[in-house]
Amino acid sequence: MPPSLRLTFDDGPGPSTPLLLDVLKDASFKATFFVLGKHLAAEQDLAVRMLREGHTLGNHTWTHARPGDLSADDLIEEIEATDALIRAAHRHAGLDAPHAIALRLPYGLQADDPRRVVLDRLARPHAGWTLIVDDWRRPAPDAQTLAGAMLDHVAAQTASGHDAVICLHDSSPRHDTRPATVEAVQLLLGHADWRDAQ
Ligand SMILES: [Zn+2]
């Protein structure tokens, strides 16, 4: 059986997201997008497309603040405002909103993370990953390098009997384009007949 692979994209939607959706559609692959509320607010039509094409929207907060930069109350306000936009996108798409929206905090969750109190107050788990790809770097590594890192990771996970959950970036808090990410995903998905985990 082919390995179970989950692709997740943080920090969008952005200018590269439509191209990425085309690549995913060609491969019949469903992904999860951990969106920023501030980007989603300007991209409701794109959010409708994402949902209608079978992808999942997760919450990556509104502004992508660093750990400790916001009070717990302010961070909860950001998360709830982003949840509300995600639910609105489902309504616009004519789909039922999910009971639970996955939440991934910016910069990931550290052991001594001051935001753990927020997760506890909201009684929500943190959506992590098994590999974070350094496509967020400026400049980003080339697509071959990114795809190679993902293939190596999937092979290692498969060999040890584990699924792979890969964190990529379809934009940035500054609304960057991500051409290398789009090309790397195309290379990865063209490499094998992956079974997506959804
Ligand atoms: Zn992020």
Q: What is the number of helical segments per DSSP (H or I, 4+ residues)?
A: 7
Q: What is the CATH C level class, in words?
A: Alpha Beta
Associated small molecules: zinc ion
Range of helix content:
40-55%
Mean pLDDT, as a whole number? Answer: 95
Low-confidence stretches: none
Describe the protein.
This protein has about 200 residues and is of the alpha/beta class. It has one domain: Glycoside hydrolase/deacetylase (TIM Barrel, Alpha-Beta Barrel). It contains seven helices and six strands, in the order E-H-E-H-H-E-H-H-E-H-E-H-E. It has helices at about 15-25, 35-40, 45-50, 70-95, 115-120, 145-160, 180-190; strands spanning about 5-10, 30-35, 55-60, 130, 165-170, 195. Strands 1, 2, 3, 4, 5 and 6 form a six-stranded parallel beta sheet that branches. Helix 1 runs parallel beside helix 7. The longest helix is centred in the middle third of the chain and has 22 residues, at about 70-95. It is globular and about 45 Å long. The chain binds zinc ion (ZN).
